[in-house]
Amino acid sequence: MARTHVAITVHTRRVALVALTLFVWAGVGTPARAEHRARLSEDLADHLTAGSQSIDVMVHGDEATVNTLASRYNVVVKRRLKSGAVLHVNAGQLDALSRDADVDHLSGDIRIQPSDVTTQSIGADQLWDGGLGDLPALTGDGIAIAVIDSGIDAKHNALKNRVRYSYDFTGGNGIDKYGHGTHVAATIAGEMGRTSYTREYRGVAPEASLINLRVLDDNGVGTVSGVVEAIDWAVEHRAQYKIRVLNLSLGAPVLQPYRDDPLCEAVERAVQAGLVVVAAAGNFGRTADGRTILGGTTSPGNSPHAITVGALDTHGTARRSDDTVATYSSLGPTRFDLVLKPDLVAPGSRIVSAEASGSYLSANLPDHHVIGSGPNAYMRLSGTSMATGVVSGSVALLLEEKPELKPASIKAVLQLTSSFLPDAGVIRGGSGSLNALAAAEFVASSDSLDSVVNIGGESVRANGVLFVDATDQQQLLSDHSIAWGQIDTIVWGQIDTIVWGQIATIVWGQTDTTLWGQDHTVWGQNATIVWGQNDTVVWGEDFLD
Q1: What is residue 542's predicted lDDT score, i.e. its pLDDT?
Q2: Active-site residue among 100, 149, 337, 479?
Q3: DSSP 3-state of 347
Q4: Around Cβ 375, how many Cβ atoms within 10 Å?
Q5: What are the residue ranges spanned by the domains of the chain?
Q6: What pLDDT, on a 0 to 100 scale, did the predictor assign at position 492?
Q7: CATH number of 125-461+518-528
């Protein structure tokens, strides 16, 4: 299938910073010969041009290579990683490193922070009790999810029996003093509330185990290297703790192609090791004055190996017919690589989940408190972070049902069984809204797309939409006995190839409202793209209501 190139007009904007709550990523580089520099992330390139203060740089290589570089340029090794190290350098040392033939690419160790539904709206509640055809009861039992975030309040009654192990990469004790990780963790696997007034609150996979990997400090800030270290730790200890899923409800502006992005590289290593990585798309769907932002997907959500999740607004009902993509949810395609993202959307607006006692969010957002106190407190938050937790819990249910499912198969199942949102288009809504019930039915019914499920009193059918990475083709064909004819035409292509099913055929072009949605034309003047060297966009304290 021939690919049509769409002309893109980039409108560069300087975005005002608010307190960080996501990852910022630095880029990487090519082998440096005498006449060439290593590939640099945009922040490092800017720093080199400014020639100012010292900076932390991530370099790839084994221990011997790192030691040689540190000695050669008299730089301090701040942190060692399995894939390399973090070096503290001044502008002169950075320049020398970038010219070194042993250095392929360099990335800044930027600051990170988190991005901020019911289970009925995705059909998860129908899976807990079984009784749906031949499906067993699914609760996530036997599956562990590593929550890489600000920590988990293991004293909260929704989580006290769910946290199996904690490791703190910030030097602390794993306690969540920020509050974000606790909310996400309970969205994934929180047990039913212990009081009569909190019994309605429960995570998607209430019997799954949680591995608490803290990378964000008391203010919700961390470093890229800390997240990379946590991902590599999860890979190394996956068998010991039965880790099958990584939840990354955090991200950073995309400053380089995903192949050079250290966070995306870590995600790829995890997926190759058999872990399913679920990442937030980001909360950059539009500007403060209401203009649409195209290409606002953050890292590591830009990785084709991650399941990237946008946020859905259910408007407080279990019905699917009134669902819309949240206006804050980031759109694709991704910067540099033009990968179609998000992969799908899930409930993310006004999610009620565990409130970490004494945390920053609890103290500073009193109006978000919903009910209860102490270990029984619950609060409301919105964002792609929450939606990511909903998907991670759903993945745990599928892995309990069929443990041999591989990451590419999990992504395919979730996309094929989602509900397409024609008003949103692919770059806003991905393949559609998550349907955990239909996904479990699909896995149980020999990969048939014919089943119809009932959610919120409405009949819902799988849509048959799938984005295919050509590298996943063989695995999908070997893992599934899908009658591909049900999806009409399958096009195996590059990472950003669209595969469509029974609903429609995609035609690349500037008038294609199916692809881009009905709210604006493709790359027109009404849309804003936040791509440019001055765009140091990060998550802020504008917590969504």
Answers
A1: 43
A2: 149
A3: strand
A4: 16
A5: 39-109, 125-461+518-528
A6: 35
A7: 3.40.50.200
Establish whether 472 is a catalytic residue: no
The one-letter amino acid code at 317 reads T
Q: How far is CA 463 from CA 164, 419, 452, in A?
A: 37, 6, 11
Same fold, 39-109 and 125-461+518-528: no
Is 385 tagged catalytic?
yes
Six-digit token string for 531: 């791509």
* Nearest Cα residue to 212 out of 354, 101, 331: 354
Residue 516 is predicted with a pLDDT of 41
**Cα-Cα-Cα-Cα dihedral sign, residues 433, 416, 470, 232:** positive
d(CA 231, CA 514): 36
Tell me which CATH code domain 39-109 carries. Answer: 3.30.70.80
Catalytic residue selected from 47, 60, 180, 305? 180
Quick one: pLDDT at residue 130?
Answer: 75
Q: Return the pLDDT at 144.
A: 99
Query: What's the pLDDT tens digit per position in 304-315?
Result: 999 999 999 998
Q: What is the pLDDT of residue 35?
A: 62
Which residues of the chain, if any, have pLDDT below 50?
Answer: 1-34, 116-118, 477, 480-545
Q: Which two tokens stand for residue 283?
A: 């909360």
pLDDT of the residue at 388: 97
43: its two tokens:
């922040």
Q: Which of 115, 150, 385, 409 is catalytic?
A: 385
pLDDT at position 325: 96
Q: What's the Cα-to-Cα distance from 540 to each of 286, 378, 510, 515, 537, rounded to whole Å? A: 14, 22, 33, 30, 9
Q: Are 253 and 27 in contact (CB under 8 A)?
A: no
Q: Catalytic annotation on 149?
A: yes
